[in-house]
Design brief:
The chain is mostly helical. The protein is 60% helix and 0% strand. The chain has one domain: Orthogonal Bundle (434 Repressor (Amino-terminal Domain)), CATH 1.10.260. Helix 1 crosses helix 3.
């Protein structure tokens, strides 16, 4: 069954949203950092809410999020 997590670009880029995006990619922090072009430490700081991503990284996170949405839209929908 598909997750009910919904991604929208209008929401603020919160710590939990960033972590949800990473988890949706199936990547560990190290690999996700490469994808976003950020330091591994930054990923942890963003996910904990200690630091927020700069504009460049936030833009990349939104792009990844939209890719996830597009991919999920192509998947067949299952009803229990």
């Amino acid at each position: 069954m598909r997750s009910s997590t919904r991604f929208t670009s209008s929401r603020k880029m919160t710590a939990s949203r960033i972590k949800s995006i990473r988890l949706a990619t199936g990547l560990v922090q190290e690999d996700f950092a490469r994808l976003v072009n950020a330091r591994v430490r930054s990923i942890g700081e963003w996910e904990s809410g200690r630091v927020t991503p700069n504009d460049e990284h936030e833009t990349r996170l939104r792009e990844i999020e939209q890719e996830i949405v597009a991919q999920r839209a192509k998947e067949p929908f299952e009803v229990d």
